[in-house]
Structure formats: structure tokens, C-alpha cells
Design brief:
The protein has a single domain (about 1-250), classed as Glycerol-3-phosphate (1)-acyltransferase (3-Layer(aba) Sandwich). Strand 6 and strand 7 form a beta hairpin. It is an alpha/beta fold and about 260 residues long. The protein starts with a helix and ends in a 5-residue tail after the last helix. It has helices at about 1-30, 40-50, 75-85, 100-105, 115-130, 160-165, 190, 200-210, 230-250, and strands at about 55-60, 65-70, 85-90, 110, 135-140, 170-180, 180-185, 215-220. Helix content is about 45%, strand content about 15%.
């Protein structure tokens, strides 16, 4: 009962403060004042605290280039946007999410369709252009969310944009460490991660009811395309770095039975 009451209060606060910040961002973008503003980062900082996403940062945050990160949940997007100004490279389905899709568009998201060769080529052009202009773009190369206990193979198609521009690629590890200050158990992970065929609204409600989660974000040393034979070898190196950090951090956490 207490969990449901807190969840209702959080949702109410979210609905109160979201529209004015969305409006401010819309005015800035449509008036030609530019897309690089502090509004999205401020919004996501407030939202992460409101939803109970406690963020720990390790490493130096990049000022530009492509970020490659493992993908666990919709919470990844909020946390990364709270950590630094960036834009997302997301699957086209994200654009259809209620409210979150509109927020993603305002924050300069590039929506991709991996099933269409023509769409991939067009998206690559857009990503390359944004990287050339000094933007920070984040890509989840697994192509889907996962449990957070391990990492899926990387798809390297869109890493070609960094390869062609010569911009740096920063591997980032997202580690969901605990809930209510205690290490996560295997049984709790389905309530934290969002994967499979689950729908957003029920998952969000369950998460709000169950309480705060601690997410550690590790920004690793950047990789440079010139140091690798091609985008595939660069992607494999990033995968190795992220997988190693994920295993080390989860192994270091004491197990609660």
C-alpha cells in the first residue's frame, strides 16, 4: 500500500513538471536557438531522482564522439542523459512510446530501422553529420535490452559513422548494482531490466512501487578508429572492455540469498 502511494505521488510530480520543460525545449529548438541546451540534461537529472535512479559515475565523461553502451532498460536513456549532454541513436519503436517518444525527438534522437538497407544508409549519413559537428551520440550496439547480468554480441553497422569521421568511440558500462542500498539478487533483475515482450507502462509502475535502484556508469578510455583495422575490430574491443567491467563489478558485489 505504501509502495503504491509513493508511486502515485512520483507519477503526479512527473506529470506536473514534464510539460513546462518540454515546452521550453520545444521553443528553443523551433526558434532556431539551437539543439544543444542544458534543458534535456536538467530534465533527466530531475527525472532520475524522482524515479529513484541513483547514479554513480566513474571515469571521464566525453565531450563529443560516439558512445557504445550495454543496454538493460529504458532507465539507461534517462541516466545517460542525466550524466552528460547527448543525443540517442534508437530503434524506431522508441519514437512511438507515449511521452518518452516526444521527449526523444526533442533531444535530437536519430531513429533507426535495422530491417531496411535504405534506412540504414540514411541513418548513417545523419549520424556521420552529427558526429562531424561535434555532437555526442549514444548507441546501444546489442540492438535490444538484456538482463544486465551479461552482454550480447555487438552489431557494428552504425559504428561505421565514427569510422568514416575518425571520431572517438567511448565504451560505457551500465551496471545495476542494487536496490534500497542492497545488492540485486537474480530474482530482482526482471523488475529492474526491461527486456523480452514486456510493455512499458506495467514495468514502469512495478519499478516505481519497488523503490530506488543504484546504477553505476563507467566511462572507459576512448578508442580511435585509426588504431583498428575496421569498425568490427573496434566494436569487438569495446565489447570486451564493457563485458570485463560488467563481470568484475557484479562479481565484486556480495551475494544476498
Amino acid at each position: 500500500m505504501i509502495g503504491s502511494t509513493i508511486a502515485i505521488i512520483k507519477l503526479a510530480l512527473f506529470l506536473i513538471y514534464t510539460p513546462p520543460l518540454m515546452l521550453a525545449q520545444w521553443v528553443i529548438v523551433t526558434s532556431g536557438l539551437g539543439k544543444k541546451t542544458g534543458v534535456p540534461q536538467l530534465y533527466n537529472k530531475i527525472l532520475s531522482r524522482l524515479l529513484g535512479i541513483r547514479i554513480e559515475i566513474e571515469g571521464e565523461r566525453p565531450s563529443h564522439g560516439l558512445i557504445l553502451a550495454n543496454h538493460v532498460s529504458w532507465k539507461d536513456i534517462i541516466a545517460l542523459n542525466a550524466a552528460l549532454p547527448l543525443s540517442l541513436i534508437a530503434k524506431r519503436e522508441v519514437g512511438a512510446w507515449p511521452l518518452f517518444g516526444s521527449l526523444a525527438r526533442l533531444q535530437g534522437t536519430i531513429f533507426i530501422n535495422r530491417e531496411s538497407k535504405r534506412s540504414i544508409i540514411a541513418s548513417l549519413h545523419d549520424i556521420k553529420k552529427r558526429l562531424s559537428h561535434g555532437d555526442t551520440m549514444v548507441l546501444f550496439p546489442e540492438g535490444t535490452t538484456h538482463t544486465g547480468k551479461s552482454i550480447l554480441p555487438f552489431k557494428s553497422s552504425f559504428v561505421a559513422a565514427a569510422e568514416r569521421t575518425g571520431t572517438q568511440v567511448t565504451p560505457v558500462t551500465l551496471i545495476y548494482k542494487g536496490q534500497h542500498g542492497l545488492p540485486l539478487t537474480l530474482r530482482q533483475r526482471p523488475y529492474i531490466g526491461w527486456y523480452g515482450e514486456g510493455t512499458l507502462a506495467p514495468h514502469l509502475w512495478t519499478f516505481l512501487r519497488r523503490g530506488p535502484v543504484t546504477l553505476k556508469i563507467i566511462f572507459h578510455e576512448p578508442l580511435f578508429p585509426k588504431d583498428f583495422a575496421n569498425r568490427k575490430t573496434l566494436s569487438r574491443k569495446a565489447h570486451t572492455i564493457i563485458a570485463k567491467a560488467l563481470a568484475e563489478n557484479l562479481h565484486a558485489a556480495p551475494k544476498i540469498r
